[in-house]
Amino acid sequence: MEVKASFGAGEQVTALQNAARDLIAQVRQTGRPDILAADDAPVGTVLCAPLKARERVLGVVLFGRAAGQPVFTAGDEKLVMALTSQAAIAIEKAWLHQQELKRQRMEQELAIGRRIQLSLLPETCPSVPGWELAALYEAAQQVGGDYYDFFELPDGTGRLGLVIADVTGKGVPAALMMAFSRAIIRTEAMSGRNPADVLERANRIIVQDNRSQLLLSAFYATLDTRGGQLAYASGGHDHPFWLHAATGICEELHSRSLVMGAFPFIALEERAIDLAAGDLLLLYTDGVTEARAADGQMFGDERLQAALAANPAASAGEVLRTIVGTIKTFVGEAPPADDLTLVVVKRNGS
To answer: Where among 46, 72, 96 does a domain terminate?
Structure first.
């Protein structure tokens, strides 16, 4: 039993507690006041009343009279219950006020975190002659673990770095891991190393410094914007889709891969493709294919490929809007279970 407040000499309070232990348990269970004739001096009778608000017992109040004094009566019970009812309402209001203040502070902190996280994403998609790029990020919560990135490589060859990644988990821990991994991958990529080397080196650093036990899947590619060659490697990420304009075939970009953050040394496979005029490339996170409708059915790869191929002559932005609209229609009013991130790349011209 924890005493929040007491009035009287210490030995009197102790005697009151000892005399009323069973009575307190009974009052907490029933929610009704009760009177006990105590056998232990110096307490004669004990009145125990619940602090009750909306049928919920918040605590109890004990009153004791010394041996030889008049015993508590039913009238005393009514008076005490009137007082404790008002006290319980005041206590509950104070508690609810504190909870609301905590909620507001949490909302403010998450809003700040969201602004910081969004500031780490590219402000706009790069404008590259002969190419179109479009991207979307929607967090399931205020902050999340998905991200995408674009950056021009500093070797003067016109290559563009493309990254999409997904941290396991959600909320603040995933967002912090996202910021950490983004900085590492971008730093390694700026060294000019090939995609497989970049992800392998980034993985070693993540494993060394990762105390959160969160894992990361990532896809990193370098796009030769002059010749159209895309070199890529995957660290356990969902296979991107490559829609061939000439044939209408949608192909998955497979490669040997392993999720990042689990093992210090991983061997990733690097592959390359040549994007022709009109070809579309779609990068995405598993929140897209695992988006669920109200009946629990997942969006899946087939629907995603169909949405990608629905209007191949459209711009990258229009293709992205078609995909997102198809997902939203499929999901309906069901709340998002995971972050949603997509990047569309299209080669224009001849």
So the answer is: 96
Query: Where on the phi/psi map is residue 32: left (φ > 0), alpha (ψ -120 to 50), or beta?
Result: beta
What is the domain-level CATH number for residue 259?
3.60.40.10
The two tokens of residue 266 are 């991983």
CATH number at residue 83: 3.30.450.40
- CA 343 from chain centre, in angstroms, equals 21
Q: Are 184 and 202 in contact (CB under 8 A)?
A: yes
Closest to 280 measured CA to CA, from 309, 255, 259: 309
For residue range 258-315, list pLDDT tens digits in order.
999 999 999 999 999 999 999 999 999 999 999 999 888 999 999 999 999 999 999 9
Residues 163/198, Cβ–Cβ less than 8 Å: no
Question: Which pLDDT tens digit goes with each residue over 118-134?
Answer: 667 888 999 999 999 99
Q: What is the tens place of the pLDDT at every residue in 234-272?
A: 999 999 999 999 999 999 999 999 999 999 999 999 999
Q: Are 18 and 160 members of one domain?
A: no
SS3 assignment for 279-332 = CEEEEECHHHHCCECCCCCECHHHHHHHHHCCCCCCCHHHHHHHHHHHHHHHHC
Q: Domain check: are 252 and 213 in the same one?
A: yes
Choose one of 35, 61, 96: the last residue of a domain.
Answer: 96
Q: Using alpha carbons only, what angle is made at residue 7 by residues 81 and 75, rounded to the nearest 5 degrees?
A: 25
Tokens of 231: 């070199």
DSSP single-letter state for residue 110: H
Contacts 24+ apart (CB under 8 A), 70-75: 71/35, 71/37, 71/44, 71/45, 72/35, 72/45, 72/46, 72/47
- Global pTM? 0.72
Q: How far apart are CA 171 and CA 166, in angstroms?
A: 12
252, 253, 257, 259 alpha-carbon torsion, rounded to 10°: -70
Contacts of 159 by beta carbon, 8 Å cutoff, 6+ apart = 152, 153, 222, 223, 224, 225
For the record, the structure tokens of 174 come out as 């995933």
Do 74 and 136 fall within a single domain?
A: no
Number of structural domains the chain divides into: 2
